[in-house]
Recover the amino acids of this structure.
């Protein structure tokens, strides 16, 4: 799950990373109140879960109350790179002397954590990184080693923080790491990590996180009370919401073939098979969702899953692809029949079983004699059939 800047800031603040004062607002009235509280000048910033807001006109400096309101009236109706603005952050404006970039992310290949950093941060960071790749440092934090102040100080030095900034940068790196670990994040990025203050007064200068981007690992949400505090106020997909309530891994997609399987890999292959079949048949039929019912695919789980998939009006057919393991295909077949009794849907369902008691499962389905229930021997065959049903080429 990606966080909005106003939410990500909270997590940085909890670790004691300096950020400008800021208030989230969703209409001009709230903006006016927030601006008076924050003071002038301030920065009005679009809240969208996508970067490059500055370049898209989503970050504006305002010197007065009227300018703050006008800026928010420009920004609130915006859609930036297909993301509708959910509100604005009214933030204290800082005098920027220099912009650094620092991020921590998961590195799946080396099974540790990447620290990417450059002394040339700001909105042009990607362009600068392309032209001067040597200016971007890629460092690592070992998952098992302690990352302490000494290690953080070495890292701050090698990143190229100017001498006077090294100690504070080391503190911030350490706090970013704690933020990353304690929140089960997959990304914590600060750009710019700005040096701010009065250029003529050395004692006024310090580092401050002027922007924050954080992604959280959805697999860890159970450890954080479901991250209820970060629920998106704009839009929650009702099918994804229902699936979450049942503890199912579901992602809503745009096609017309519902897909249910067990194991993320098998479900991904099923999605590919459906897309491939749609292309082969020249109908461009696509999967309507990803749904992984997991290892212990009981009858009840199957029933809940079919219920969610069939309640989606864009679904024209369903592909069920199950590899029997802990739960036998016999159990899954019973679940499918129970679900159909309950739901009474007549949409075509194509089932492919493999593994534990596959033949018995298919037999139960065949003997049930349901007109809309079809069985297939292979995944490709099942995907072809389901795609044809969705295209209404057979019925
Ligand atoms: P992004 O474009 O989505 O990454 O949004 P940022 O929050 O990073 O803002 C973009 C740019 O606006 C920054 O790189 C800064 O140059 C500028 N900016 C943001 N906040 C301030 C501020 O308080 N003072 C000044 N002078 N510039 C700011
Ligand atoms: Mn930024």
């Amino acid at each position: 799950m990606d966080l909005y800047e106003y939410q990500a800031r909270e997590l940085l603040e909890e670790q004691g990373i300096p950020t400008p004062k800021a208030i989230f607002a969703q209409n001009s009235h709230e903006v006016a109140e927030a601006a008076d509280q924050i003071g002038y000048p301030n920065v009005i910033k679009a809240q969208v879960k996508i970067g490059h807001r500055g370049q898209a006109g989503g970050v504006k400096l305002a010197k007065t109350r009227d300018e703050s309101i006008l800026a928010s009236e420009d920004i609130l109706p915006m859609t930036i790179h297909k993301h509708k603005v959910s509100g604005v952050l009214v933030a204290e404006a800082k005098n920027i002397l220099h912009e650094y970039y620092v991020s921590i992310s998961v590195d799946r290949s080396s099974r540790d954590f990447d620290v990417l950093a450059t002394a040339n941060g700001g909105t042009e960071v990607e362009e600068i990184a392309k032209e001067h790749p040597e200016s971007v440092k890629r460092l690592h934090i070992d998952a098992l080693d302690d990352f302490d102040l000494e290690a953080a100080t070495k890292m701050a030095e090698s990143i190229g923080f100017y001498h006077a900034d090294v100690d504070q940068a080391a503190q911030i790196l350490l706090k970013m790491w704690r933020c990353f670990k304690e929140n089960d994040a997959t990304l914590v990025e600060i750009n710019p990590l700005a040096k701010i203050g009065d250029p003529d007064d050395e004692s006024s200068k310090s580092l401050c996180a002027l922007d924050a981007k954080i992604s959280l690992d959805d697999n860890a949400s159970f450890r954080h009370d479901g991250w209820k505090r970060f629920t998106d106020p704009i839009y929650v997909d009702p099918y994804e919401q229902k699936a979450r309530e049942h503890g199912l891994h579901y992602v809503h997609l745009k096609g017309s073939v519902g897909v249910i399987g067990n194991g993320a890999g098998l479900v991904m292959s099923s999605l590919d098979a459906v897309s491939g079949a749609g292309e082969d048949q020249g109908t461009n039929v696509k999967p309507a969702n990803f749904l992984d019912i997991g290892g212990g695919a009981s009858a009840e789980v199957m029933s809940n899953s079919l219920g969610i998939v069939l309640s989606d009006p864009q679904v024209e057919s369903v592909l069920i692809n199950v590899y029997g393991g802990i739960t036998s295909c016999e159990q899954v077949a019973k679940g499918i029949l129970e679900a159909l009794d309950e739901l009474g849907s007549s949409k075509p369902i194509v089932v492919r079983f493999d593994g534990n008691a596959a033949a018995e499962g298919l037999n139960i389905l065949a003997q049930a004699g349901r007109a809309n229930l079809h069985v297939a021997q292979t995944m490709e065959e099942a995907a072809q059939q389901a795609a044809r049903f969705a295209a209404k080429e057979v019925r």
About this structure: Residues 17 and 172 are 6 Å apart (CA to CA).
